[in-house]
Each structure stands twice: as C-alpha cells, then as structure tokens.
Write a structure and sequence with these properties.
9 helices; alpha+beta; single chain; globular
Length: 234
C-alpha cells in the first residue's frame, strides 16, 4: 500500500493527522509506503517576523490575539490526547521552503529516511520550539537522521528541489486540496484533514478490499480450457 501525504512542518493538524494515520495502520496491521509531499501554508512567511504565533493567527483570520491564544490552546489539547507535546508559545516564525527541499533530498535515500526527517522537523517546531527555517538548525536536524552533511549544505546553499516543492503544491491543488493535511491512499482514496483514526481505518479497509485477489468458485484442472506459461492444452 502507498500513502501520499501533503502537509507542512508548521501545521499543527498535520502532526495530529500523522499520528492518527499511524494509529489506524497499527490497529489494522497494514504496512504502507508513506511519501511526504510539500505544501506551504504561507509561502510569504519570513524567518524574522517579530510577531508571536497567536498574533499572526489572529491577524491571518481577521481576529485578535486572544482568539489566536484560544486556537492554540485547543489544538494543544487535541495533540496531547495523542501523546504529542505542543509548546506553541515557543513557536518561531519561519518560511518552510528549505525544510521541504530537504525532505525531497531525504526521499532520495528512501521513504523511511524521509519519514524520520518529517517526524524530526515536526517535533522540532511544535515541541522543541526550534526555528525550522534556519539553515544551521535544518542542517543539525538533517544530520540527526543520517543525511550527508555535504549534500545538505549544497542543497541549502542553492535552490535545488524548489521545482519539486512547487510541483507538489500544484498537485495538491489539482486534487482539490486547499488545505492540509491531505492523504491519498493507493492513488484512489482521499482523506482531507486530520480525521479520527476510524476514518483512516475505513479508507485502509476499502483500499485493501480493492487489492484482494478474485475468489475462485472452481479450480482449474488439466482438462480445463485455460492457457498458462507452458502453453494451451488441446
């Protein structure tokens, strides 16, 4: 099974959605190849915005800072139910394009490596309060998951994988996903948002049902009118 996921590393519901998907996979016993795709919630964000997160949220949605504080408190409580520790009061303003470019680099080493980097970036932002738009921070996080330092430095110094980041964003919009997280299972079943684990479980069940072999109501014999690798009996 293949699961493609579009998300941003500063999206609180993306981390929650990741955990709920993992919970559904664990309950079902399914194994899946998970590929993480880029989606920037705000490509215009900068790494030096002096406003705190509640203020930025409030202004983005036409509300005040108090509304932003309440929104952060709500998502923090939901995350805690899944064992995630959010410290959104420490969250730094960042542009995530470089983090996404490194995720594309990590994918070249396999989906497991990319998955480890995705998890580390999410934890770095939401739990550790690290600036995941800062190159030194990104290089250190990439080193933790085993990416070669020379390639990481090379990517961060240029624009490599920027086209892939843009292509991911365009693909998400083509699917009709205006927000994230967005999950596509076996290129057939889509799940939008950090849905409860039961929703993911149902999508996994349907995907598995589609891939089950046909149940035979009779078994072939030597005299049946069938052809095989060795030819056709007459």
């Amino acid at each position: 099974m293949r699961i493609d996921v579009w998300s941003d590393v500063v999206c609180p519901w993306c981390y929650i959605g990741k955990r709920r998907l993992e919970e559904a996979l664990a309950e079902s016993g399914d194994t899946a190849e998970i590929v993480w795709h880029s989606f920037q919630l705000d490509p215009s964000s900068t790494n030096d915005d002096p406003r705190d997160l509640p203020t930025r949220l409030g202004e983005k949605y036409g509300r005040d800072r108090a509304w932003g504080v309440q929104a952060n408190q709500h998502v923090t409580e939901v995350a805690a139910e899944l064992g995630l520790e959010y410290h959104l009061d420490q969250a730094k303003a960042v542009n995530t394009v470089d983090a996404h470019r490194l995720l594309h680099l990590a994918l070249e080493s396999g989906t497991e490596t990319q998955g480890r980097l995705k998890e580390r970036l999410l934890k770095a932002y939401f739990t550790d309060g690290l600036p995941v738009g800062d190159h030194a921070t990104l290089a250190a996080l990439a080193a933790e998951v085993g990416l070669p330092a020379d390639r990481v430095a090379e990517v961060l110094a240029g624009t490599e994988y920027a086209d892939e980041v843009a292509a991911d964003q365009a693909q998400a919009l083509a699917y009709g996903a205006n927000g994230v997280p967005f999950f596509v299972i076996d290129e057939k079943y889509g799940v939008s948002g950090a849905q409860p684990a039961e929703v993911f479980s149902e999508a996994l069940r349907r995907a598995n049902a589609d891939r089950k072999p046909v149940t035979l109501i009779s078994s072939p014999s030597a005299t049946d009118a069938t052809c095989g690798p060795d030819g056709c009996p007459i």
